[in-house]
Amino acid sequence: MTSTPHLIAPPPDVQPDDAAATPVSRDVIVAGTLQRDLFRLGVVPCVIVALALTGWFTHSRLDALEAAFDAEGQAVARQVAAMSDLSLYAGDVPALQNVANAALRGGQVTRVEISNSAGVFVSAGPKTAPMGELRMFTAPVTLREASRATAFAPAGSTVAGDASIGLVQTFRDTTAYAHERTRVLMAGIGIAMLALLAAWAWVRHTARAVAQPLRRISRTVAALEAGQFDARCNVVTSSSDEDDDDAGSGGRRRTRHEFANLAHDINRLAERLQRNQQISDEQVREATAVALQRMAEAEQAALSRARFLAAASHDLRQPLHAMGLFIDGLLPTANPTQRPAVLRLQEATDFMGVLLDDLLEISRLDAQVLTPAIAGVSLASLFDQLEAQHAAAAAAARVRLVWKDRGLAVNSDPALLLRIVGNLVSNAIRHTPTDGTVLVVARRRGGAVRIEVRDNGVGIAPIHQTRIFEEFYQVANTERDRRQGFGLGLAICARIALLLGTRIKLRSALQAGSTFSLDLPIAHPRLVAAPTKEAAAAAPLAGLHCLVVDDDPAILDGSRTLLELWGCQVDCASTRKEALTRLDKTDAHFDVVLCDLQLDGEEDGMEVIEDTRRLQPDALAVLVSGATGPEALQRLRKGGVMLLTKPVAPAKLRALLSTKRAPILAAC
């Protein structure tokens, strides 16, 4: 009877050491357990049935042997008793001896003894065998009527008048009987072992036929799970199976076809998964292409915005710079009626200058042209500078400032750190209610120092906490009041913090105040340099010879007016050629050269600076520009040029000119 099911070959692309090795191992273990269960389920009943049948048949055979052995011995004893009744009654010993010898000649017994109570005793056969190997059978010798006498009467059956006159004892040797019992037992055991072996082989074959296809299916499923959607269960049908199918063996065909159907279902699932993967891959490729295109468009838009911001910043700074120069020149000579309007103009100009400065700062940070000068910074000195800067604003807002440096020092850029903490303190003062407190404290955290700026203001809602570091984002300034800032301070501070290798953290809740903090590497206070002394007061500028180079007539007029108001001697040039003519004069000596970066046409202010360094090496060469593009900033940084960003505050310009005037006065 054929029992081989449809064989399912493993997929050719699934290897034992591929990515699906772990799932395959797990599935093989499961299949092995199933195989053991099937083996146990098939073998145990076979063992029980085989042992039961073998035991029953063996026991029946042994009982039959026992009964036959006893029946033969008892029959011989009865036959001898029936033949020796008259001879024993008559005391005919020779006749009894003949009867006993005749019984031995049949070979069924090995010894016969006939005796009575009168002392007659006749025996035949050897008495050398041990009694343990002999079995004795007895029969009484009775006298009966001739018509009733029979050798085959049941034991003890007597009729009226019958009386026992003696006893017959026969002995049978049990050696042959024991050998027969042993042979029967061995035959039973052999048959049982053959049955068990056949059952074991059959069940093992059946279990393998069930488990191996499942194991192969499991490996295919594991390969699909690992993403190998081209794995398949290849169904191989043997010719014997086809013959069985044609013969109509319904039960076996259904069993085989269950594996085949399972394999086909898995193949259909794999095909569907493969199609879905192809569709998904195509969608991913399309989405990736769209994303890359949009990313390129976004980068191009960002570059366009950066170029636009740089161009717009330069175009705005030019008139703003001229406005500042003219306003500062008009303010000392304005009459009481004109002075309020001039002050308003100056305030508006200052606000526009602050906004453009912030935009320039962000551009410089994005362009990565700032390189931190890391050094030891004493927090006591830092907090003293911050106290001097913000004490007036805190007093005006009736906010108490508390500083706790705890004698700590950090490794950082002093100017950039002052900018970050100063902005945080300014924001805290602005958002702290009247009679509130702003606490600036330093705490040691292992090998770092945490600087915290705390206030007890209204706090920041969680919805705003992730956006306050974005450009132009302000929580409580929806009307865009410029006196509350432009929303660029925290964005600049966040970029500077990243430049210093840290980041600003925020803890805040509504009506519970806010805490801004940043962690910096700790420094030993003894290794921190002592703070430098404050610079001396600005020297007078009378007699300072300045050359102003700009293609904007308004800026030239404003610069001339302001510098001459300070007592400087001013020459102006609108092109590089004019500037070079003045610089190359034999009797020309300039103390300061202020040159715009972008001159008319293709001329570049950097070339004028290089001419100044070559022809007037003692002059202070300063580039004045409204350009904020990353390329321009990196170029100026590589050239080592001193830069003033338009619009230049008159106070800043005066302070710069004073640094050049002081050495001149000292030399005089």
Structural class, please?
alpha/beta
Report the uncertain regions.
1-32, 146-154, 156-161, 237-256, 477-483, 533-538
What is the radius of gyration?
61 Å
What would you call the shape?
rod-shaped
Total strands: the figure is: 18
CATH 2nd-level architecture of the largest domain? 3-Layer(aba) Sandwich
Largest sheet: 7 strands, mixed
CATH topology of the largest domain: Rossmann fold
> How many distinct domains?
3
CATH top level assignment of the largest domain = Alpha Beta
Mean pLDDT: 75
Strand fraction equals 15-25%
Total count of helical runs of at least 4 residues: 16
Give the end-to-end Cα distance, rounded to a whole number of Å. 126 Å
What would the keywords be for this entry?
transferase; histidine kinase; 3 domains; 668 residues; Heat Shock Protein 90; seven-stranded mixed sheet; alpha/beta; five-stranded parallel sheet; Rossmann fold; ATP binding
Please give a structural write-up.
By secondary structure, the protein is an alpha/beta fold. It has 3 domains: 194 residues, no CATH class; 218 residues, Rossmann fold, CATH 3.40.50; 158 residues, 2-Layer Sandwich (Heat Shock Protein 90). Helices cover 54% and strands 16% of the residues. The strands form 4 sheets. Strands 7, 8, 9, 10, 11, 12 and 13 form a 7-stranded mixed sheet that branches. A 5-stranded parallel sheet has the order 15-14-16-17-18, with helices on both faces. It has a 4-stranded antiparallel sheet with strand order 3-2-5-4. Helix 14 links the parallel strand 16 and strand 17. Helix 9 packs antiparallel against helix 11. The chain is rod-shaped and about 185 Å long. It starts with 6 loop residues before the first strand and ends with a helix. 29% of the residues are buried. The N terminus is likely disordered. GO terms for molecular function: ATP binding. It catalyses: ATP + protein L-histidine = ADP + protein N-phospho-L-histidine. Its EC number is 2.7.13.3. InterPro entries: CheY-like_superfamily, HAMP_dom, HATPase_C_sf, HATPase_dom, His_kinase_dom, HisK_dim/P_dom, HisK_dim/P_sf, Sig_transdc_His_kin-like_C. Its main location: membrane.
